[in-house]
Amino acid sequence: MPEGLSPRTRYYYRFRVGSWTSPTGRTRTSPAAGDASGSLRFAAVSCQAYHDGYFTALRHLAQEGDVDAVLHLGDYLYEYAVDAHGGDRADPSLELPDRFNKETVTLEDYRLRYSLYHRDPDLQAAHAAHPWIVTWDDHEVENNYADEIPDGSPPEAFLARRAAAYRAYYENLPLRPPQQPSGSSLQLYRRLHFGKLAQLDILDGRQHRDDQSAGDGWQVPTAETGRPDRTMLGTTQERWLEDGWKNSKAVWNLVPQQTVLSRRRNRTTGPFPLSMDAWDGYPAARRRFLEAARTAGVKNLAVLTGDVHVHYAMDIKEDFDDSGSRSVGVELVTTSVASGGDGVAKPGDWQTFLDANPHMKFYDGRRGYVLLTLDQRQLRADYRTVDVVTRPGAPVTTAASFVSRAGDPGLQPL
């Protein structure tokens, strides 16, 4: 690991192996520990299914200037089969061997899938342009798995599959030695500091959770759903998060994580189905999360989320049943890079979601990423979108922008 680097400085690097020299990449060091000056800029991305389309959004992200770090919020790759022409990319010039046209299970499978993704020129460009901070969701292993409980794998074989997936994840993504896996476990949650402007608590909401109740999809909650001991993060990670918040001296406390924290209803009259895979399926865990933030005195909380293949901007309410209750933070949900294929600005449930969730300030179904700019006064979120990913080259636009003022939680449109 490089030593003696200056804070808040742009560096360039390349790798040499034998006679081969890599293209030049660039990175940026974080501010010094006591530095609260200037501003920071992050980009939030998620869900890049190769077989669903081109990574056009990442090409545009590579061209964004002065990004301190890209925050990848999960589903870096997908375990599903990819046919010879790249699925919905339908690239006639591409002739992938049959070994990709199968679901990933073994270590070789996962290593090959990373090699396929890393051949993508747009993904290469984004990695070369900016430093990346990563966390996973489910598809890096298997859809909707929960801790040691698989969604489709034979239970007796799942831990071997998870160990293979975790090993390949560590080998192929920018993780530090403390994240080196041990068998089917990997210490992924960790804390990073960007001077006194931002503390990043990167969560693992997949490896330590209880199994989903009432199935993995949208279901009316059951008594099991509301059980007070159910956990999304596990007891150890919950305590680690609360202790970190209590000791935080940062202006902004950012929480990069996987699934939607805020409540989402998909109808305006009850009974109300909720997403059992998101925090809605773990209401007691969400209450503990918000209570820990309150107890620690966190004033500027921003939860950064992926998973759902749409953009959301939401106020995190003290009481989601009372739209007039106090906002305790904001949740910025980034859409997918490619997963789900071409999107639309207003999906069919667009108006229903906005009506059913007054704390939801924005909803867009296109592909893209979120740019976050923060300083001592405010956090700004710019929702960037591309209209098409099933063919390359779509332009990028800013669909909406919001700010949250320091000390005054809640999103205001610009």
Automatic annotation (TrEMBL):
A Pfam family per the record: PhoD
Every PhoD-like phosphatase metallophosphatase domain range: 42-383
Cross-referenced SUPFAM superfamilies: Metallo-dependent phosphatases (SSF56300)
Residue ranges, annotated region (Disordered): 208-230
InterPro entries assigned: Metallo-depent_PP-like, PhoD-like_MPP, PhoD-like_sf, Phospholipid_Metab_Enz
Name of this chain's protein: Alkaline phosphatase
Species whose genome carries this gene: Streptomyces bathyalis
